[in-house]
Specification:
Strand order of the largest sheet: 1-2-3-5-7-9
Oligomer: single chain
Number of domains: 1
Largest sheet: 6 strands, mixed
Shape: globular
Number of helices: 9
CATH superfamily: 2-enoyl-CoA Hydratase, Chain A, domain 1
CATH topology: 2-enoyl-CoA Hydratase, Chain A, domain 1
Helix content: 40-55%
Number of strands: 9
Length: 249
């Protein structure tokens, strides 16, 4: 895989985003991560999955400079692919732990929200759904996943403010469950994943499905219209001007 590094240890499989300094998400990243997850879903030797990143970023989110060259139709296709990925991950039958090694912004935060347990490093790392700060919207699925974890009041605060939360602030909002040092991240993620992997697979998958089925049904009903609205806002004059000023370094 070009942008996903994979590792296996005991019954824990790790997918590590590895695309440049900020692990920006594009179509190739989406396709490769889905491919890895599908292979592990059917592997009886995989009891749990860890998703993490390289460097100081879990993920910056979308590769905005790349998407500036896309037509509306091309960008819409990408968004369907991306939202299909996080919907699949949200329903994934095996436990998934997000080990947030650094900043998890916008689309990167959405991937983290699709996981069962989030562990974030302390220090300078930030977690945010900051789309409103540059004039963009979000998706039905990301809104419902956020509400699932933090409740409607906190979801409103997160999305309307576009705030950048430290690990401690994110934990106070229930955006993450654990905060650890950078040195302890891998060990803690392995501990959580190993504990979840001890659950009987069919029972875990059933309980997870029961907890999330109504959420996924709501996501599915509203996602297509949310994507259309997202695209209209994305290509509006004011938002487009802001997008052109975003650089990935």
């Amino acid at each position: 895989m070009d942008f996903i590094e994979v590792q296996r240890s005991d019954r824990i499989a790790t997918a590590r985003l590895s695309r440049g300094k900020v692990n920006a998400i594009n179509g190739a990243v989406v396709d490769q991560l889905r491919s890895v997850l599908r292979a592990w879903e059917g592997d009886p030797e995989v009891g749990a999955v860890v998703v993490t990143g390289t460097g100081k970023f879990f993920s910056f989110g979308f590769d905005i400079p790349e998407f500036l060259s896309f037509t509306r139709a091309e960008f819409t296709d990408y968004l369907r692919n991306f939202t299909d990925l996080y919907t699949y991950l949200f329903q994934y039958p095996k436990p998934v732990v997000a080990a947030l090694n650094g900043h998890a912004i916008a689309g990167g935060c959405m991937l983290a929200l699709a996981c069962d347990h989030r562990i974030m490093v302390s220090g300078k790392a930030k977690l945010s759904l900051n789309e409103i700060s540059f004039g963009s919207s979000v998706f039905a699925g990301s809104t419902e996943m956020l509400r699932f974890w933090v409740g409607s009041a906190n979801a409103t605060a997160v999305l309307v403010s576009g705030a950048m939360y430290s690990a401690q602030e994110a934990r106070s909002l229930a955006l993450v469950q654990d905060v650890v040092s950078e040195e302890d991240l891998t060990e803690r993620a392995s501990q959580v994943a190993a504990a979840l992997a001890l659950k009987q697979g069919p029972a875990f998958a059933s309980v997870k499905s029961l907890l999330r089925r109504s959420v996924v049904e709501e996501m599915s009903k509203r996602e297509a219209e949310a994507i259309r609205e997202f695209v209209n806002i994305w290509y509006s004059e004011a938002t487009w001007a802001n997008l052109r000023n975003i650089q990935i370094r």
